[in-house]
Amino acid sequence: MNDHLAVLIPGDGIGPEVTAAVCRILEAAKAPVAWIERQAGLAALHAGSRDVLPEETLDAITRYGVALKGPCTTPVGEGFTSVNVQLRKRLDLYAAVRPVRNLDGVSTRFQDVDTIIIRENTEGLYSGIENQITKDAVMSMKVATETACRRIAHWSFRFATRRGRRKITVFHKANIMKMTDGLFLRCARHVHQQEYPNIEYQEMIIDAGCMKMVQDPTQFDILLLENLYGDVVSDLCAGLVGGLGVVPGANFGDEQAVFEAVHGSAPDIAGQGLANPLALLMSAVMMLNHLADTRHDEACRKAAERIKTGYNQALKDDQKTRDLGGQLGTEAFADAVIGRMA
Q1: Which of 45, 124, 141, 266 is the most exposed place for a label (fewest CB within 10 A)?
Q2: CATH of range 1-108+242-342; options 3.90.1200.10, 3.40.718.10, 2.60.40.420, 3.40.640.10
Q3: At what angle do helices 15-28 and 278-295 cross, to 10 degrees?
Q4: What does the pLDDT look like over 204-237, one tens digit per residue?
Q5: pLDDT tens by residue, 13-49
Q6: DSSP 89-117
Q7: Residue 133 and residue 255: Cα distance in Å, rounded?
């Protein structure tokens, strides 16, 4: 079978370094993927684009259906709008998925964590509707539609069924935000009751849920959240297993999927060969499994298994980058993974 064409967005800061390492590992694993490179973020501006998310990048993802994206810089409190938010909105990538699990060789205070966070990706406070009300007052509007709430509920229950997961817990604040979070809950309840009664269903006010999460994260299987809650809780959950450097991320729509490192661009260590490529590598494994599922190519799944075997064994052998307590640089870690692939 011919290689699957996929868009590669190296990103900013450490992005090009970790992306190059991941591509080298995929090549060694004989992953049947050929890359179409495009730019986003500051890298796009430096390449001469007037936009941090050029139309040619969006067009390529639309055409090829799959992309792997390195971290892109987002200014805090000023400057351009988040590339990630723009990408999700423009391509209607409404389901963000963040699997969080313990890895052998990465020491944390919790064990047996295996939770998947599913986040509605297009609405809520991230709709970006902000206004200056008076000289000293601003407003941000939280948006919820029945279409989007019902869509993410359907997607989540289908996902849980395909993956053999047992329970979905919705974190919410419907006791206060009775209309927006109330709508999110009603849609989830309806989909559960009418179509997926086989999946255990639970609702939990988010502040109580976060407390229970840090008491015993193993009690949660799949978490379903609206946009802002999902952003915060997914990072909290990453902290339970070692941080953002050891968790992958993906954004799914009906037609396209973008797989990405969920950590920042770390400009303070860019160009020094110190960055950990594991998060982006794990996201690439998710991409390969997605290609195996959607394009019925078992070569992708076999490559994914080889890579997963490689990084699991490398971590067990204490072959780790500095952020995980080891001494390896970016390329040395890639070598350690490649040398341990089955």
Answers
A1: 141
A2: 3.40.718.10
A3: 50
A4: 999 999 999 999 999 999 999 999 999 999 999 9
A5: 999 999 999 999 999 999 999 999 999 988 898 899 8
A6: HHTT--EEEEEEE--TT---S--S-EEEE
A7: 38
Give me the helices (H) in the chain, please. Answer: 15-28, 42-46, 55-64, 83-90, 146-163, 180-195, 206-215, 227-241, 278-295, 298-316, 330-338
Let me know if 246 is exposed, middle or buried by CB neighbors in 10 A (0-12, 13-18, 19+). buried
Q: What is the pLDDT of residue 78?
A: 47
Phi, psi dihedrals of residue 28, rounded to the nearest 5°: -65, -30
CA–CA separation, 245 and 223 (whole Å): 21
Q: Which of 42, 78, 31 is nearest to 265 (CA)?
A: 42
Query: How far apart are the C-alpha atoms of 278 and 25, rounded to whole Å?
Result: 11
As a whole number of angstroms, the distance between CA 257 and CA 259 comes to 7
Question: In the chain, which segments carry CATH 3.40.718.10?
Answer: 1-108+242-342
Of the CA atoms within 13 Å of residue 15, those in its CB half-sphere come to 26
Rounding to the nearest 10 degrees, give the CA dihedral for residues 78, 83, 88, 89.
50
Two structure tokens written together for 161: 């069924």
Side-chain-side CA neighbours of 67 within 13 Å: the count stands at 33
DSSP-assigned states of every residue in 52-85: SS-HHHHHHHHHHSEEEE------SSSSSPPHHH
Local structure of residue 51 (DSSP, 8 states): S
**Secondary structure (3-state) at 119:** strand
> What is each CA distance from 9 to 17, 36, 47, 161, 291, in whole angstroms?
12, 9, 13, 31, 18
Q: Dihedral angle at the C-alpha atoms of 11, 16, 17, 19, nearest 10 degrees?
A: 80
